[in-house]
Amino acid sequence: MAGNVVQGRVPELITSAVLIDIDLGPNLSITGSLATILWLVALRRDGQTVSAWAFLKLGAVVMTFALLFSLGVAITFITKIINQLLQKI
User: Fold this and answer.
1) Quick one: how far is CA 11 from the chain centroid?
2) What is the pLDDT of residues 13-46, one digit of tens each?
3) In degrees rounded to 5, what are phi and psi of residue 60?
4) Do residues 65 and 23 lie in contact, with contact meaning Cβ atoms separated by under 8 Å?
5) CA-CA distance, 80 to 71, in Å (whole number)?
6) CA–CA separation, 37 vs 24, rounded Å?
7) pTM value?
8) What distance in Å separates the CA atoms of residue 78 and residue 13, rounded to the nearest whole number?
9) What does the alpha-carbon distance between residue 5 and residue 54 come to, in Å, rounded to a whole number?
């Protein structure tokens, strides 16, 4: 049903932005994904605790690097496409 909301072709830039965004949320919030919650349960079962503040601090660092890398790849990709279009002119 959700796939029927968008009709026609979605621009690649929008698709890439959505993919980057859905990867950033779980890095910033403990409740950002089911996998994170399951890992937290497993850690607590083993007697280790991770506070929301500690998770946020580490997630902010990891997310920053992931975001910068993703933006670098996106800029490289867009630059390549622009150069190809300019060569056709």
Assistant:
1) 18
2) 777 777 777 777 777 777 778 888 888 889 899 9
3) -65, -40
4) no
5) 14
6) 15
7) 0.56
8) 9
9) 38
